[in-house]
Design goal:
Length: 162
């Protein structure tokens, strides 16, 4: 009973406390964070999703973006119903990509649009994060296409349209 009460308090804290997008949540039985997708449009609500793995099970969680600059801050951590195999497939597909890691050096700029972040997490603190604006780097196209597919799937699952 005490463990269940402690777990409930931890979940309440996760769902109500503001945290940096780079901070992982930690509660008993939540598994490992594997993917994070954050979408911050200029004139619409922003959203963040995380895919977690617990053994052979995969779970999708959704958070609100309460601050997008200078660093992204999130609040909430709600479980979204989505097929485990689809979530596992997204992770497997993204870690099999090979793309140049150079950023966009086109010299362009912009004011309005959408900023997207995609992060992938492995074991032993290995991770990487890409960020781009609406005019995405062309050499990242396979990554961008997969990120857009995830955003579409996650939005539909959460009934939140971006």
């Amino acid at each position: 009973m005490a463990i269940e009460q402690q777990s409930a308090k931890e979940w309440d804290a996760i769902r109500t406390s503001t945290r940096s997008a780079t901070d992982d949540v930690n509660v008993r039985g939540i598994g490992f964070r594997r993917l994070q997708v954050i979408v911050c449009p200029s004139f619409e609500d922003s959203r963040a999703w995380e895919v977690r793995q617990l053994e052979d099970e995969w779970w999708l969680y959704e958070s609100d973006v309460v601050q997008s600059r200078p660093t992204i801050q999130l609040v909430g951590y709600n479980l979204i119903s989505m097929d485990w195999e689809v979530l596992a497939s997204f992770f497997k597909r993204i870690v099999s990509l090979s793309i140049p890691v150079s950023p966009d050096l086109s010299g362009g700029g912009g004011l309005d649009g959408k900023v997207i972040q995609l992060a992938v997490f492995g074991d032993l603190y290995s991770e990487w994060r890409f960020q781009w604006w609406s005019q995405s780097p062309t050499h990242w196209k396979p990554l961008i296409d997969l990120a857009n597919e995830m955003i579409e799937s996650f939005s539909a699952a959460s009934k939140f349209n971006i």
